Amino acid sequence: VGFDGYRVDAAKHMRKVVISTLAARLEEGPELAGEAFLLMGETFAGENDHDEISEFIGPYLLDGQFDFPLYWATADVLLRNGRGFTSLDERLAASEKNYVDPSLMATFIGNHDLPRAISHANGDISDLWGSEAKTQAWNAPPSTPASDEPFERLKLAYSFLMTTPGIPTIYYGDEIGMPGAGDPDCRRMMRFGEALSSAESSVLSHVRQLGKLRRANPALSGGKRLKLFAETDVYVYARYDADSVVVVGLNRGGDVWQGDVHLPSVLAFENGVTLQDALSDSRLIVEEGKIKMALNPRASAIFLKTVQP
């Protein structure tokens, strides 16, 4: 039927021989005839449990797993406005260090076991871990946010998700900002088309645009990552490969941010190169190895090289 792979649920709750047998039989079976078949595992883990996840990845094991350690930091920094971007950069570096191939890890901002991303962004979930969220699901299920700010945070989180290493994995409904507390409230019926508000449609359009950008620019999926600037509310990084460079800027703050961003020589930007923001009409010109960047409040920018000097 053309499946690309399997999601192997609750990997840590089965004997490892089950996974290795599955991987071996898939590789040896005539149905695949040598085609690559992804085995993506799920091991619900904490923020520092990289080893618990990594032990199930390798030859004749899983190709990758859901990156729960990165999820907790992503939700805290981008959805809940908790710790700053310097912490998120550290968690990204930890993923790159602890996994054999970070590009084969599933990255996400929501799934079927967690409170909805937009409800975190709206302040409806009491803590990052969703400690009371299952009770809340029955007693006080959250509503769709009334203001634009939570949707702006959600779009910012998607900009991060779609421009960092890994396989972006979208849980149905998060692409429109569907609210929900813990299980089963995070499994509400999907809504489409005219049933969506303008804010929900805006998130959907943003996700679609990011998907097209990622497909059109291989550096966003398989390139190296390089931090260019990080402070509490602002994060700028590059994704690059042999053929292209993409510069991403994120501002979670409530004010416009402006500053100089230095471009290391490894990015090979010559003076006079023009960078165009794929999400707006903004343009930057490389001068003396740096760019003067401006980022709107709770907004992102994805700069692509458009004009040579």
Per-chain topology:
Blueprint: E1 5-8, H1 16-28, E2 38-41, H2 50-54, E3 64-65, H3 68-79, H4 85-98, E4 106-107, H5 117-121, H6 133-139, H7 149-161, E5 167-168, H8 198-216, H9 219-222, E6 224-230, E7 234-240, E8 245-251, E9 257-262, E10 274-277, E11 283-285, E12 290-295, E13 299-307
Parallel strand pairs: 1-2, 2-3, 4-5
Antiparallel strand pairs: 6-7, 7-8, 8-13, 9-12, 10-11, 10-13
Describe the structure.
With 309 residues, the chain is an alpha/beta fold. The protein contains 9 helices and 13 strands. The strands form 4 sheets. A 6-stranded antiparallel beta sheet has the order 6-7-8-13-10-11. A 3-stranded parallel beta sheet has the order 1-2-3, with no helix packed on it. It is globular. The protein starts with a strand and ends with a strand. 41% of the residues are buried. The model has no long low-confidence stretch (mean pLDDT 95).
Distance between the termini: 49 Å
**What general outline do the C-alpha atoms trace?**
globular
- Total number of helices: 9
Report strand %: 15-25%
Total beta strand runs = 13
- Name the average pLDDT: 95
Instruction: Give unreliable regions as ranges.
Output: none
Secondary-structure element order, as H and E?
A: EHEHEHHEHHHEHHEEEEEEEE
Strand order of the largest sheet: 6-7-8-13-10-11
Biggest beta-sheet profile:
6 strands, antiparallel
